Amino acid sequence: MTMDPEPFRERAAAALLAARDRTRLLTTSVEDPDLVAQHSPLMSPLVWDLAHIGNQEEQWLLRAVGGRDPLRPDIDSLYDAFEHPRAERPSLPLLDPAEARGYVAEVRGRVLDVLERTALHGGPLHSAGFAFGMIAQHEQQHDETMLITHQLRKGPPVLSAPEPPPAPDGPLPAEVLVPGGPFLMGTSTEPWALDNERPAHERTVPPFFLDTTPVSNAAYQRFLDDGGYEDPRWWAPEGWAQVCEHRLRAPLFWRREGRQWLRRRFGLTEPVPPNEPVLHVSWYEADAYARWAGRRLPTEAEWEKAARHDPDSGRVRRYPWGDADPTPQRANLGQRHLRPAPVGSYPEGASPLGVRQLIGDVWEWTASDFLPYPGFAAFPYREYSEVFFGGPYKVLRGGSFGVDPVACRGTFRNWDLPVRRQIFSGFRTARDADPAAGGDA
Fold first, then answer.
1. How many CB atoms lie within 10 A of CB 7?
2. Residue 249 and residue 56: Cα distance in Å, rounded?
3. Which helix (H) or strand (E) holds 204?
4. Under 8 Å between Cβ of 405 and 11
5. With contact defined as beta carbons under 8 Å apart, do 235 and 284 qualify?
6. What are the pLDDT digits (tens) for 237-281?
7. Are strands 430-432 and 425-426 parallel, antiparallel or unpaired?
8. Which of 83, 248, 282, 426 is deepest in the core (most CB within 10 A)?
9. Which pTM was predicted?
10. Which of 265, 306, 179, 284 is nearest to 223 (CA)?
């Protein structure tokens, strides 16, 4: 059976346009001096991200897929993320804001022509429009990076969005039992899945208990109040060294005034909302909280089994709620809101076992190192995933409010250094279950 390419052509066009609308919002909401400034040594100037988006699009969609002559081969090295660390990018001869805007607009105009004329079958870059989907995901990933830069930026608010919906009334169980047994992890069929999500392979996990919701600010504050940042018992040695060296006392952007905790969020200072998932914590902080609570972080395999495996049918789903794409009723994604929704939100997005908010709101740290799946093959370039395997990186799952649905699914894998706090990261905890109680899935 030959796959109809037209739905993928339409999907690719929509994904590229949606990404560009968001890029435009993030880069036009500030004046040019803010675009060229480096707001943190951890991040690039916004204007670097903008031109990098265009350069990747040119290299992959105009040159590799479209066979077009290069537009700006002279800037390829300037926007090579591996050649120039973020801290040194402001010193490079970057395109100025007007040049960057003109460049990305010219590239996009030609890309839409390539998309209209390209057969979306044949080679792996063409099949189901993979290269176009990859570039849409790349732009949305940089949009999330730019949103992080906006959070780090000093000054008055420039972004706005409606508040997320309130959580439904009614108590939820603190945890759910995820049955033990085998399940199919990863994917070999998702057309725009990236190389580190492939191939699908069988994993077996023992039964375990998992938090029904992400850990809330109120729960995390109890860790603070109990002296969690003063007690080395709860911390991995490297994490305790970070606490001592940087005098950490709370999540990033929190500060205490009297008896109240406040936080800075996109230029606003506000009381820390007790019922939101805790945000801007490192892996070390998440791990320390879990130890203090007598629990642990879930492994990556445990997280994916809870998010995708249906114990009644034995099949795996694309998302916790099923195979349908995310909607505003199922998950907090796409910068629709500028904060996580309260814990317990989105009952329509719950897993078969009733676990909530596995997709969206906050990236969730797992206990796992970032490693390849059995049978991994780098595609279309080693630098996307392979060069990060086996390093100090920890896996995060599930996406955040700053992730677009095109770059978020039940198999999607994110990774970062365990010290990172500026990212939109939170967590939930797990504990072992008696194997006799778990049964087989």
1. 12
2. 40
3. strand 201-205
4. no
5. yes
6. 999 999 999 999 999 999 999 999 999 999 999 999 999 999 999
7. unpaired
8. 426
9. 0.96
10. 284
CATH number belonging to domain 6-152: 1.20.120
Instruction: Give the start-to-end residue ranges of the domains of the chain.
Output: 6-152, 161-441
Distances (CA, A) of 109 to 54, 141, 403: 11, 21, 25
Quote the tokens at residue 370: 């970032």
Domain 161-441, CATH: 3.90.1580.10
Q: How confident is the model at residue 1 (pLDDT cuts 50, 70, 90)?
A: very low
Q: Which ranges in 3-92 belong to alpha helices (H)?
A: 6-28, 32-36, 46-57
Chain mean pLDDT for the chain:
96
Q: Tell me, what's the pLDDT at 440? A: 43
Residues whose CB falls within 8 Å of the CB of residue 122, separated by 6 or more in sequence, listed in order: none
**Confidence check: pLDDT of 441 > 60:** no
Is the CB of residue 326 less than 8 Å from the CB of residue 319? yes
Q: Which two tokens stand for residue 159?
A: 């972004």
- pLDDT single digits (tens) 366-389: 999 999 999 999 999 999 999 999
Query: Under a CB-based contact definition with an 8 Å cutoff, are residues 100 and 51 in contact?
Result: yes
Question: Which among 368, 322, 320 has a CA at the least distance from the CA of 213?
Answer: 320
What is the arithmetic mean of pLDDT over 103-119?
A: 97
> Token pair for residue 186?
């990863």
